[in-house]
What we know:
Distance between the termini: 29 Å
Number of strands: 0
Strand content: under 5%
Largest sheet: none
Number of helices: 2
Helix content: 40-55%
Structural class: mainly alpha
Radius of gyration: 12 Å
Shape: globular
Amino acid sequence: MVMFVCIRCVGVHRSLGTHISKPRSVDLDIWTPDSIVLAQKWGNERGNAVWEQTKSGGTLPGDE
């Protein structure tokens, strides 16, 4: 699944470890053709339909 997230959320995902989440930079990383196809296929709308349903309350990083 490929989704685009804000810089705060990327930090959270990076701290989870690559066995859980593999955040990539749009500008700094090299995207394989397969990753580009996944981004087009999944996108944020479809990804959120999966993940927003399963997250528990208070799991988003704050603005502090």
